[in-house]
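QA checklist item 7 of 12: single-chain prediction sanity check.
[x] sequence parsed
[x] length recorded as 369
[x] structure emitted
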Amino acid sequence: MKNIDRRQWLKSVSLAGTAAFLIPNQTFSMEVPIHRLGDDKIRLTSNENPYGPSKKVRTAITDAFDIACRYPSINLRPLVDAIAEKEGVSKDHIVVTGGSTEGLKAAGMTYGLEGNEIVAADPTFQAMLRYAENIGSYVHRVPLNENMEHDLDAMAARVTSKTGLIFICNPNNPTGTLLDKNKLRDFCNSFEKRTVVFSDEAYYDYITDPDYPSMVELVKEGKNVIVSKTFSKVYGLAGIRIGYLIARPDIAVRLKKSIMAMTNVLAIAAAEEALKDDEFYKFSIAKNAEGKENMYKTLDDIGLDYIKSHTNFVFFQSGRHINDLSEAMAKKGVLIGRPFPPLYNWARISTGTTEEVNAFCNALKSVYS
C-alpha cells in the first residue's frame, strides 16, 4: 500500500474511531505476547509499540537466520528499493541506518564539526544534539513556545553563518505537538538556502491529517533537507534497530561516510516484511488511537491538563515533580517517562497494550485520589 493510501486511511480512523478497524484484527492482541523486562513492571517509558513485531515479520526474521553468516550489503538492496518506492525517490536518496538514532548522530557529526553550530527546540529528542556536543559542536537550544511547539521565529533568530544544521522533531518528542504545515514548509524553504534543515519524522505515521506533508517533498525538490524515519514505532521494531534517512543524493553520500554501526540481515528482513504488512500497520495505528483516548478520558476525570498528541504517547501536566510521580507510579507497578527539563511538572506516557493502558489509568487514579 502506498503512503498516500495510508494517509487516507488515517483520516478514516480519525473520523470514524477505531472500533471498525479492530474487528478483523481481534486475534492480534491474543497472539502477540506482552513483554516484561525482568521486574514485572509495566513500562510506558520509551514510546515503543508493544504489539510488534508482527507475526509475518517474526517469520521473516527467523527465515533470515539462514543468511546470518553473510554480510548485509547485498541483502540491503531490495529494502533500499522498497523504501525508495514508498517515499517516491530514487534509491540514491536513501541511507539505511541502525535505527533512526544512528542517522541523527551521523547528521550531527557531518554538520556539527569544524566549529559549526546546531539550532534546535528545547525540550526535544536529544540523540543528535548530545552527540554533536560530544564532538565539539555548540547547540542553540531554543525554548518551546507557550503552546509547547517549536518556536520557529525564535529558532530563526539563532541562525548565523556558523549554523551547520537546524534540527526539527515533528511531531515533537516529548510534547507530541505538530507544527502548522504551512509555517513548517515556509521555514524549511527559507532556511535551506543558508544551511541544512533536518526533519525528524519518527512519529509521522501517527499524524491523522491526510494532507500533512512529509518534508520528503522538499527533498524531491532538491532542497538542503534531510528527513529521518524509523521502523521502531508503528512497525514495532525498536529492539531490531533499523531506520533510514532521505536526502538529496550528494547529501546522502556525505551522510553515509558517518554511518558506523549500520544494520544487519535480520533487521533488513524484518523491515522489508514490515513494509508489506498493512494489516499490522493499521492495527498498530488503531490500537494507539484507542489507548490515547483511554488516557485522555482518565486525565479528564482526574482534572489534569494534557496536550492532544500526534504520536504514540501523551504529555500531561502532572502538578507535581516528575520524580515524585514516577516513584509513586512505580510503586503501583507502572513505569513512566523520564524527566524532560525544564518541564519537571510534566509527564510523558507511552501507549501500551490495552491491558497496560488500563493498568496505567487505574494506577494514576489511585495516585491522585
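[x] summary fact logged: The two ends are 46 Å apart (CA to CA).
[ ] second reviewer sign-off
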